[in-house]
Design goal:
458 residues; alpha/beta; 35% helix; globular
């Protein structure tokens, strides 16, 4: 057990804040009587969690009392979805300032995902007489049967994926972070790309069974969740695996489409700009790209971002798989702690074949904000070198449009747009709750939308 890596706890109003037990008819949770925002499975667990919850509970309860409200969130009843989302984010930031500390993931989500009416024009936190929960996903609630019925068509589209998101988050917290082992199979001939990530994963199973290339018509929908326990485990494993392989397969897809003679390349250099824990966790996943490129002898990865470890560090503790060792492949990983513009000024920099920025967030902050000025403001142009393909992904379609606009405005170079804000077939199938409900959805996915650019020839 000591070797397991657990994820940070998530907040779900349908889970005990202490042990994450689900709310059920036979074992209902009890709300905290002070803040009305969190629940527990027993008085013992509420007492055990009090030291952790006390500060936030006091903030929520006192703020509500000062405004004469039953709950901290009561004043926003009847607000628009846009105003509701702004209120949630600004409230989390205000609480952080008042408490003088950074909020944990769980504490932030208490603000972002309160038990409130899901109807986008309501957001009431008090029911008539009580809230009506969606018992299938345990992520959505309504103030009345009427509002549940009114939202039925909209929620049906996201209910299954919200349930999957909840089960995966709970697994990360209680079991492990969900890093499945990769198939060691090496393609003997180049098979190219696929319409979406499911084709590659079905191909992995075909390879294991000694079968030939998979046809698109043979790909079944394998990311729909049923209530059968065996099926639940299959879909969860599939979601975790796609989250792990989305990056390498996005690289394969982009290389196949935009790099000449990609299938016969013997040497490939990839830079992961803006790299964070998402890229660095289970780093061996990036080797999967080499498994799909039979001619490849040398693969170099460089991870660049403020969250990376060494200033100019060669990562030496990642051993290539046995099959890659037999083939004599040289796969290296390097990291640089800083901006990409800083990295380009070092002696170790050499132009890559592909630059990938996952979930880029170019337009996440305002153009006058410190986060933008200290972040991507001066570094977007550095991503472009003659002949280098630059790809960046976004969580949603709206974000993708803004990210591309921001890139074109600040990169300072003439750019050829090869892909403009298109759905990425190699996106992760691991859903993540979206409190903003952008694009009308209730979840988003890593690498969901992709744009691809390169500098115009001089």
């Amino acid at each position: 057990m000591s070797g397991l890596i657990l994820g940070d706890p998530h907040f779900y109003w349908s889970h005990c804040l202490c042990c994450h037990q689900e709310d059920t008819i036979t074992a209902p949770l009890k709300r905290c009587s002070r803040c009305h925002a969190v629940s527990y499975c027993s008085p013992a667990h509420q007492r055990a969690d009090w030291k952790t919850h006390k500060q936030l509970c006091t903030f929520l309860a006192q703020t509500a009392a000062e405004t004469g409200q039953w709950s901290f969130f009561s004043s926003m009843e009847g607000s628009s979805q846009t105003d509701w989302s702004k209120f949630l984010t600004s409230s989390a930031m205000a609480c952080s300032r008042v408490l003088g500390k950074s909020l944990s993931q769980q504490e932030k989500e208490i603000f972002l995902f309160p038990r409130s009416c899901q109807l986008s024009s309501c957001h009431s936190v008090t029911g008539c007489p009580d809230m009506v929960d969606c018992v299938r996903c345990l992520c959505v609630s309504y103030c009345s049967q009427e509002h549940q019925e009114e939202d039925k068509k909209s929620h049906t589209l996201g209910c299954t994926q919200l349930k999957l998101a909840r089960l995966l988050d709970r697994h990360n917290t209680l079991v492990d972070i969900g890093v499945p082992s990769l198939d060691p199979h090496q393609d003997s001939k180049y098979l190219g790309t696929s319409k979406d990530i499911r084709g590659h994963l079905v191909q992995m199973e075909y390879d294991r069974l000694g079968l030939g290339p998979v046809e698109d018509s043979e790909i079944q929908v394998i990311d729909e969740l049923s209530d059968e326990p065996g099926q639940v485990e299959i879909v969860m494993d599939f979601a975790f695996l796609t989250n792990q392989l989305s990056g390498p397969l996005t690289l394969l897809d982009i290389g196949h489409k935009f790099i000449p003679q990609f299938n016969t390349r013997t040497h490939l250099t990839v830079h992961l700009a803006g790299a964070s824990m998402f890229e660095m966790l289970a780093m061996v996943k990036w080797e999967y790209l080499a498994h799909r490129l039979p001619a490849l002898h040398r693969l170099e990865y460089v991870f660049v971002g403020p969250e990376c470890g060494g200033e100019e560090g060669l990562i030496t503790d990642i051993e290539n798989c046995y099959e890659c060792q037999v083939k004599g492949r040289n796969i290296t990983y390097r990291e640089f702690a800083g901006g990409y513009d800083q990295f380009k000024r070092t002696a170790v920099y050499s132009a890559p074949d592909i630059v990938l920025v996952q979930n880029c967030g170019f337009a996440e902050h305002g153009e006058k904000s410190a986060e933008w000025v200290d972040g991507w403001a001066g570094g977007l142009g550095a991503l472009l070198d003659q002949g280098v393909v630059v790809a960046f992904t976004s969580y949603t379609g709206g974000e993708a449009v803004e990210d591309l606009e921001r890139f074109l405005k600040y990169c300072g170079k003439e750019v050829e747009v090869l892909v403009r804000c298109e759905k990425n077939g190699m996106r992760s199938r691991r859903p993540v709750r979206d409190f903003e409900r952008e694009d009308g959805g209730e979840v988003f996915y890593n690498n969901q939308i992709v744009s691809v650019v390169r500098a115009k020839k001089a």
